[in-house]
Amino acid sequence: MNAHVRLCHADEVPEGSSRGFDPAGSGRDALFVVRRASRVHAWLDACPHWRGAPMAWRKDAYLSGDRTAIVCAAHGARFDIASGLCTLGPCLGQSLTRVPLIENESGELLVQLPLPTFEETNP
């Protein structure tokens, strides 16, 4: 059954930051959200190079030091925040898996469960 799950209020993801979420209660962050240029983007927490390995080196640490790119902690691949496209590293040309994000009239960020899986989007 599909259900919308609240992640947080949009204001809880400040400009230039990232935050991981476990909306299904699996015990690890399944997706992360990044705010850049006043837009919020959501991605599966799964690197396309390492068959879906988690991206962060610690909780909520998905961005480069200058906060201009998403970086996989496992091997340093860099991804464009807005498109999810790998711009540097072993998965050059591959992309992160976008998670459809809903921002309601109250500013709450929601996702629909079940989430897409890495395997479904990267056969």
From TrEMBL:
GO MF annotations in UniProt: 2 iron, 2 sulfur cluster binding; metal ion binding
CDD domains registered for this protein in UniProt: Rieske
Domain of life: Bacteria
Pfam families noted in UniProt: Rieske (PF00355)
Domain Rieske: 5-111
Alphabetized InterPro entries for the sequence: Rieske_2Fe-2S, Rieske_2Fe-2S_sf
Keyword annotations: 2Fe-2S, Iron, Iron-sulfur, Metal-binding
Keyword Magnesium recorded: no
PANTHER family the record matches: PTHR40261, RIESKE DOMAIN-CONTAINING PROTEIN
Name of the protein this chain belongs to: Rieske (2Fe-2S) protein
Originating species: Ramlibacter aurantiacus
